[in-house]
Amino acid sequence: MRKMIVAANWKMNLTLAEGRQLVEGILAGLPELNNEKEVVISSPFVHIAQTMGQLKGKSHIYTGAQNCAAEAAGAYTGEVSAAMLKDAGVAYVIIGHSERREYYKEDNATITKKVNLALANGLQVLFCCGEALEVRDANTQNAFVEGQIQDSLFHLDAAQLKNITIAYEPIWAIGTGRTASSAQAQEMHAHIRSVIAGKFGNEAANEMSILYGGSCKPSNADELFACADVDGGLIGGAALKAEEFLGIINAMKNAKK
Ligand code: 13P
Q: Is 169 among the residues known to form the active site?
């Protein structure tokens, strides 16, 4: 049985006080979830200890980070290692977000190193992929996303793959208010699942959670999560308000899967 996940990506937002208040609001309204559904809060690094404390003893809700270093340890000023995240109690780490790829020039080789280190340290990986508008306009998005997955995940073995969740985030839908239609999301998610099946087999593909990200909000989450191959969402803007994030969590709870 594959899991549904709604993961917040706070990006570079919120003071500690604002973060504390947001998590309080989420916990106050968090519905009861079954074992196949979970919530992740991916905060900036400086929030992690505080968020960990707030989530202690809670079930179905976990702490995430938004990045980790591509090296294990040493003289890399400003970086945070996968081992440090694990030691801090983090469960999930987002790797390969389009903002990291674009603004910090992370290529597939760097992202692959991060995936390997995260897995070696026992973290769950939220692996992001997705195409820019010009790729979509040229109708080459399937090959593009397949290339990203091939380059950074195809070297893994079946046991490692179990700790990967894929997040499909079309860049043209991130923070733009322009959501992929549920048909576009379903089409790409089915493609991603077939790419995983081709390399790792049907069982691995069936177990893989594939999240959608890009202007997901309470008003479209029901429709997106109803798609057969959409197993939840990676949420930016709408995760910064407890009420909106809870609306998306409730869409996951109510999804008939
Ligand atoms: P928005 O939900 O703000 O479009 O951001 C999506 C995203 O990039 C999550 O990682």
A: yes
